[in-house]
Each structure stands twice: as structure tokens, then as C-alpha cells.
Amino acid sequence: MTDHALTLDVLGSATPYPAPGNPCSGYLLTAGGTRVWVDAGTGTLAELRRHVRLDELDAIWISHLHADHTADLLTAFYGALYADISLAAPIPLYGPSGIADRLAHFLTNSSRRSPVEAAFAVEELRDGHEARVGDLTLTSRAVSHGMPAFALRAEAAGRTLVYSGDTAPCPALTELADGCDLLLCEADSADPAEGERVHHTADEAGATAHAAGARSLLVTHVGPSLTPAEALARAATRYDGPIEYAAPRSVHTL
Fold first, then answer.
1. How far apart are CA 248 and CA 23, in angstroms?
2. Signal peptide: which range, if any (predicted)?
3. What share of the chain is helix, strand, coil (3-state, %, to 5)?
4. Which of 12, 110, 180, 201 is spaced 20 to 30 Å from 240 by Cα?
């Protein structure tokens, strides 16, 4: 076990669908003996199992209900109930409103509702939601993604990581990330999309890190219009602190 207060293992960072060798969004956050699966995008469950079994997780935290952040909850349901582990209790699952019914509707193959609560103890997020999970304090803020979506501030032993989830730049994220040790921020594209804004560009990821006074920036969720190197270069035009890319299987310690 690491001596660091917080460790982030990148399970995947691809969008909008997996790339060879890179699942969609998913991370394992570890503090002391506490382990939280943050977002469960396509392909991340297999990578999670390199580190921890489902019955060893302390919680799962989900930013929003798009498939590239949630799809592996479906296979986790089967793994938790019908495979080679035995849960002592359902896994605490923090996610947007309606997450339990969304899973149940997908999994149900008859008129009987799928028993998702046997696998997951669901607690719905709200703006300002706070949970204590073992050594971690998890604070969630509602952000701007055109649907219920949340960013996360995780704190342990005086160290802080903030994860943007998917969002356009917004005051709630900047406030949540104030003075954090590491901002894990999406850098979805090179240029702002036309119409409704629901993502950060790479430049904006740097701008948010600068505005928040983050000590370091980790760019993730880099879309197909950019290479990771291009995303880093563009973020660096707006932020002069340390910047890295959330490469799959990379480990980041605070």
C-alpha cells in the first residue's frame, strides 16, 4: 500500500468509445485502505480487477449517466451477484438521480424489475452532497453538461483531488477545485462546439486549472479531434503549472 495520502490509478480515459488499450473514463482512487471506483466507462471493470475485487471496493462514484462513464456498471452487477465473489453487503453507489432505475430498466428481461439494489446501495447525488467513505471525504457539485452531472472533490490527510466529470467551464467546478493538489479535468476537443456547451476544450482545461489555483493538472477524456500531446500543449497556453495526460494504467500520487 502506498504511503501517499491519495493515489489515482487511471483505468481508462478514452471518449466517446474505447480505443485499443484505452477503456473509457474510469479511475481507482485509493487513500490508506479505502478504495473508490470513480466512473465506470466501457472496459474499465477489467482494468479495475487488476487492482481490487468488487467485494473489496468501499464505494463507486458516478459523475453522470452517459454510457462512456457508466456502461461497466451493467457487467459489475452480474459480477457482484452471479460470479466468483460474495458481497457482505451491497456496494455503496453514489450517482445522479435515477441511476438505479436506469440500470434496472436495461437489465430487466421480464416484467419483474431487476434487483439492482442487491448489488448496489444507491445514494443519489445533489449539489453539495458530502459523504465520508473510510479515509476519504467526497464532495460533489452539480456542473454544466446539459443533464444531471457532477464533479468530485476527494480529500484525505490534507491532500485534495478534484475530478471535473464532463462539463463545460462553470463557476461550480472552479470553486470546487479551489487550491486543489490535482485537477483531473476533461479536455474533450480543440475548439468549442456550436450550440450548447457541455465540455471543456483543452485550452479551457488549462484556464480552469489556472482560475482555481490548482497545483497540478491532469488532462483526460481527450476526444478524437486531438492527440494527447496536442491537448497538453493547448492546456499549457492557459496554465503554467505541471500538466500530465491521464494515460491508461498510469498512477498519480499526491
1. 8
2. none
3. 25, 30, 45
4. 12
Contact residues for 25 (Cβ-Cβ < 8 A; gap 6+) = 12, 13, 14, 15, 39, 41, 44, 63, 68, 69, 220, 221
Judge contact between 222 and 209, C-beta under 8 A: no
C-alpha distances in angstroms, 50 versus 40, 47, 73, 127, 240?
15, 5, 17, 33, 34
pLDDT in tens, 183-192: 999 999 878 7
Q: For residues 6 and 36, give the distance between their C-alpha atoms in angstroms, rounded to a whole number.
A: 11
Instruction: Tell me the domains of the chain and their CATH numbers.
Output: 7-246 (3.60.15.10)
Tell me which residue has cell 490508506.
32
Q: How many helices (H) and strands (E) does the chain have?
A: 7, 14
C-alpha dihedral sign at 107, 65, 216, 14: positive
pLDDT at 151: 98
Give the residue from 124, 134, 123 showing the smallest Cα distance to 35.
Answer: 134
| C-alpha cell of residue 225 | 479531434
Q: pLDDT for 34-89, tens place per residue?
A: 999 999 999 999 999 999 999 999 999 999 999 999 999 999 999 999 999 999 99
- What are the CA-CA distances from residue 163 to residues 1, 21, 132, 151, 182 (Å)? 23, 22, 17, 6, 9
